[in-house]
Automatic annotation (TrEMBL):
Gene3D superfamilies named among the record's database cross-references: Tetratricopeptide repeat domain
Taxonomy, superkingdom: Eukaryota
Ranges: TPR repeats: 281-314
Ranges of Polar residues composition bias in the record: 1-10, 26-47
Entry protein name: Uncharacterized protein
UniProt keywords, alphabetically: TPR repeat
Length: 378
């Protein structure tokens, strides 16, 4: 799950929407489905658009759709078009025609139809046409017959998860959680409670509940995820480290700072063992935040300074993450009455914010300046 934790104290569950059509659909992947988005990671969401998009319609003889070989061919064309970076509208047309061909085929091809509908919905989502993706995904859920085997069960699971992703992007969290729970039920029946693939679904639900401010439910799913890691993962796995960071966020939100600190330290140890210096620094920022909440100021300064050294080395002196730590240190020293140090860190942060390097977003600048306001009263 990429981008679980940010060095900025901003929402982590509203993910930047990747183009889901650029992923190869597979029922045998990490979690068995094509993701249109994730409830995890940072800052931006694609919003549904009301603008009508002109599709690049290709001339088609409807009678040719009865050819049982046409559906697989068109579905491959759709995927190849996506992979080549060509017009998504052309890929959408191929995918829609593929699904129509599977619908009309005299030979039952429910699994293939479901997969083609997943692709259609993913393209709609990538175009921001989320309202149109929903009925397609609802249809894809109706198609597979669980009694026909594991592939059909996972195809149905895939539809529920992709539908949950779509609702999540639209901000409809209750519907999103409901879809994830329906998908989880199917997955548990097909794979069992301790299958490693179930851990990712637990993680999705933990993030969704966290976003909905339902911390007890989020903690419960985090615990289930960590239990699966205990049973199946290699020691010091990166996946477990990521899930411990999520658990730390849940504990911090509940005010259980000591437990949050414990999970962050364990996660940091794993990252150190795997040579992930950048991630270690990001965790150090989170550790500093916890120490600050506990009024353990010297330990907070030490954690922030460790992260600052790494970020300067890896990302550069004028990176937004460097400015963010300057802001934190300014706030810390302001709270402890060390006004000279606070003013110095404020000036360092302002130097970066007033001459932002490429890649800075206006949101980062606005957030940083807002957080600096108390310290800037000096």
């Amino acid at each position: 799950m990429p981008g679980l934790i940010s060095s900025n104290p901003s929402p982590i569950f509203i993910s930047g929407t990747p183009d889901p059509t650029k992923k190869t659909e597979s029922l045998n992947g990490t979690n068995g489905y094509l993701k249109s988005a994730s409830p995890s990671s940072n800052q931006l969401r694609t919003r549904p658009t009301t603008r009508k998009t002109t599709s690049e319609k290709l001339p088609v003889d409807e009678s040719s759709l009865d050819n049982p070989d046409l559906g697989p061919f068109l579905l491959k064309l759709a995927r190849d078009t996506i992979s080549s970076g060509e017009s998504p509208n052309k890929a959408l047309d191929y995918a829609i025609r593929a699904s129509k061909s599977f619908e009309r085929s005299p030979v039952v091809q429910s699994l293939e139809l479901a997969m083609s509908l997943h692709v259609v919905a993913a393209i709609y989502s990538s175009l921001g046409r989320l309202e149109e993706a929903i009925p397609v995904l609802e249809r894809s859920i109706e198609v597979p017959n669980i009694e026909s085997g594991l592939d059909h069960a996972l195809a149905k699971f895939s539809g529920y998860m992709q539908l949950g992703d779509t609702y999540s992007i639209m901000g409809q969290l209750e519907q999103s959680i409901s879809c994830y729970e329906s998908g989880l039920k199917i997955q548990l029946e097909a794979l069992g409670e301790s299958d490693p693939r179930v851990a990712e679904t637990y993680r999705y639900l933990a993030e969704a509940h966290m976003q909905a401010m339902q911390f007890e439910e989020a903690e419960n799913f985090c615990k289930k995820t960590l239990e699966i890691h205990r049973l199946h993962s290699e020691p010091a796995s990166l996946e477990e480290a990521a899930d411990r960071r999520l658990m730390a966020l849940v504990c911090e939100a509940k005010g259980d700072y000591e437990t949050a600190l414990e999970h962050l330290v364990l996660s940091s140890m794993v990252m150190i063992a795997n040579g992930q210096d950048n991630e270690v620094a990001t965790i150090d920022v989170s550790i500093g935040n916890i120490y600050l909440s506990l009024c353990r100021f010297e330990e907070a300064v030490f954690a922030y300074q460790k992260a600052l050294t790494v970020f300067k080395s890896i990302r550069g002196e004028n990176h937004s993450s460097v400015a963010s730590i300057f802001v934190r240190l300014a706030d810390l020293y302001y709270r402890t009455g060390k006004l000279r140090e606070s003013k110095s860190y404020c000036e360092n942060a302002l130097r970066i914010y007033t001459k932002p390097s490429p890649g800075f977003t206006s949101e980062e600048i606005a957030t940083g300046l807002t957080e600096m306001r108390p310290s800037m009263k000096l």
